[in-house]
Amino acid sequence: MQVKSIFEGINDEDITKMLKCFEARRMQFKKDRTIVTNIINVKTIGIMLKGTANMIRYDYNGNRSIIEKLEENSVFGEVFSRLGNDISVVATSDCEILFIDYEHLVKRCKKGCSYHCTLTNNVLRILSSKIVELNQRLEILSKRSIRDKLLSYFELLANDKPNRIFLLPFSYTELADYLSVDRSAMMREIKNLKEDGFIRTNGRRITLMSY
């Protein structure tokens, strides 16, 4: 989600006032640093100002699943991530994050700021978008074969892209974790998709052919 979405309809001057009123905090994290753990119990929202991170979950066997790729302007936090209490956010590059306590979003503003209501409405709109994204992910994971999972995900990324060319947001190792499949088996299937004429690849740049 974009910062401009959460602050949509609020001018720069009011945003500055709001961040001061909300006691917002800017924090920097190095690559591979864990930003938050047990996200369901962290009563803040984070806005990715710079860099990237992954929202991840480990099962009882230590297998990693990537729930979401967080890029610049993404919003994350307990209110957006009702997926379990074992979810963490880990930096995949050096990053800077703005944290706002969740209570500031829901409690009545003592000053009666008009932009507070606007911000609350924006948060609700983001929640609706998160539900759509979660449903899309569940649809991909519901596919029975690795090929079907790959094609379903590629189709989502290629949607509305010129010439159906897109850049994978993940490394191939991360893609396997996102799709919850074995990496070696996934790479074999990608090779098969190339040989069968379904895709062309150049590193992480992929062209999805008509099929």
Helix content: 25-40%
How much of the sequence is in beta strands? 25-35%
The total domain count is: 2
Instruction: State the strand order across the main sheet.
Output: 1-8-3-6
| Biggest sheet details | 4 strands, antiparallel
Low-confidence stretches: none
Structural class: alpha+beta
Report the mean per-residue pLDDT as an integer. Answer: 85
CATH topology of the largest domain: Jelly Rolls
CATH class of the largest domain: Mainly Beta
Order of helices and strands: HHEEEEEEEEHHHEHHEE
Q: Measure the end-to-end span.
A: 31 Å
Continuous helix count: 7
CATH-scheme architecture of the largest domain:
Sandwich
> CATH superfamily name of the largest domain?
Jelly Rolls
Total beta strands: 11
| CA-based gyration radius | 19 Å
Shape verdict:
elongated
